Amino acid sequence: MPELPEVEALRAFLDEHLVGKEIARVLPVAISVLKTYDPPLGALDGARVTGVARHGKFLDIATEGGAGELHLLVHLARAGWLQWKDVLPDGPPRPGKGPLALRTALTGGDGFDLTEAGTTKRLAVHLVRTPGEVPGVARLGPDPLAAEFDLAAFTALLAGERRQIKGALRDQSLIAGIGNAYSDEILHVARMSPFKPTGNLTPEETAALYTAMRETLAEAVERSRGVAAGRLKAEKKSGMRVHGRTGEPCPVCGDTIREVSFSDSSLQYCPTCQTGGKPLADRRLSRLLK
Fold first, then answer.
1. 126: Cβ–Cβ under 8 A, 6 or more apart, which residues?
2. Which helix (H) or strand (E) holds 189?
């Protein structure tokens, strides 16, 4: 799933390639992708792109045209992606079994496709007059890289929490933009168990977690800066220390990276760095990892 660093890199890429250009047409291919119907996508015909912003994991393409100011909001979900085309194929796209979900064509012949792999379709596109009309945007917590989101704000945010820290970091209504992968990476840098209750954090641990969060995300954003959209997935994977690296040696201590599996996801961690050398119980298999 694209998270804050990749979506920020896509935002920067689109800001460079889209702003100032005119939209010829937006063509939905998969019925499931479009989540709003008023205004219709046809309202974007002839509109000019005025800016590209990010709200958590949402991309926000702002436009100005005959229908006034409109925002095309995109959430890539778990298996969605954006593919830029310097020259779009001739003719309208045909609905079918392929991954193409929506095409945005510009008057210059270039544009981008939104694709989604797999059978579970969660890629979401909204056309709205203000970003806050999208429920997922309206409920977002603060951006973890925002200048005003300091240690005091982070401490206050966690003060009322009693759940495990992994779940808290992933909650978009608490902190915007962090998903499964970067929460693993942040907790590894902070040397903290993913199952540690937030209510048990000491002031020193809270400060360490805050620093790990800011540094991990900032480094990932910097690595992704200037990377072409098609290479961002590979860039994300190459920068991971523990996430997706089950069975490999920890880059810090050399211990074997372990995994805990759930019904639809998994987490990775280093026992020596994060859990005092003790493997965590794999809840899906109801056994201890060995």
1. 35, 36, 71, 72, 73, 133, 134
2. helix 180-189
| Dihedral over alpha carbons 19, 98, 31, 28 (to 10 degrees) | 30
Partner residues linked to 83 by β-bridges: 113
What is the distance between the alpha carbons of residues 290 and 280, in angstroms, rounded to a whole number?
10
CB 85 within 8 A of CB 228: no
Q: Identify which of 114, 117, 118 has the alpha carbon closest to the alpha carbon of residue 126.
A: 114
Q: Output the pTM of the full model.
A: 0.91
- Are 217 and 144 spatial neighbours (Cβ–Cβ below 8 Å)? yes
In terms of C-beta density within 10 A (0-12 exposed, 13-18 middle, 19 or more buried), how is residue 250 classed?
buried
3-state secondary structure of 85: strand
CA-wise closest residue to 63 among 49, 53, 45, 74: 49
Strand partners, 59: 54, 74
Q: How far is 237 from 245, CA to CA, in rounded Å?
A: 9
List pLDDT tens digits, range 18-70: 999 999 999 999 988 999 999 999 999 999 999 999 999 999 999 999 889 99
Strands 68-75 and 80-85: unpaired
Tokens of 53: 């912003």
Bin 13: left if φ > 0, else alpha if -120 < ψ < 50, else beta.
Answer: alpha
- Reduced to 3 states (helix: H, G, I; strand: E, B; else coil), residue 233 is helix
Give the tokens for residue 176. Answer: 């915007």
d(CA 106, CA 110): 6
